[in-house]
Amino acid sequence: MKDTAEGRRSFLKHILAGSAVIGAAAMTGKTTRAGTAVPDNDPVRDTLYRETEEFRKYYESLRS
User: Fold this and answer.
1) Cα–Cα–Cα angle for 7, 20, 23, nearest 5°?
2) 29/31 Cα distance (integer angstroms)
3) How far apart are alpha carbons 10 and 12 in whole angstroms?
4) Alpha helices (H) in 1-64, listed in sequence order
5) Measured on CA atoms in the order 50, 53, 57, 58, is the torsion positive or negative?
6) Do the Cβ atoms of 45 and 38 come closer than 8 Å?
7) Contact 44/38 with Cβ under 8 angstroms?
8) What is residue 61's predicted lDDT score, i.e. its pLDDT?
9) Which helix H or strand E contains 33, and what residues bound it?
10) Alpha-carbon Rg of the chain, whole angstroms?
11) HSE on the CB side for 28, CA within 13 Å?
């Protein structure tokens, strides 16, 4: 019986410590970004979406 109580206490201590770490990270207010930054004037940024014939056919099939 005492062994299970110790296990529960240990589990709760770990949960409390983990939530404290997450709370501290949230309080710092720093944001991170994945990957590299793309400049605003980069032509690749403008070509993320291209409407092709295949897409037009697909959109038409959704409307039907």
Assistant:
1) 145
2) 6
3) 5
4) 2-28, 43-46, 53-63
5) negative
6) yes
7) yes
8) 92
9) none
10) 26
11) 8
Evaluate if residue 1 carries a pLDDT over 60.
no
Closest CA to 60 of 51, 12, 37, 5: 51
Does the pLDDT value for residue 63 go beyond 80? yes
- E strands within 1-64? none
SS3 category, 54: helix
Per-residue pLDDT of 10-58, as tens digits, reads: 888 888 888 887 887 777 766 656 666 666 666 666 666 778 899 889 8
To the question of pTM greater than 0.85 for the whole model, the response is no
d(CA 28, CA 23): 9
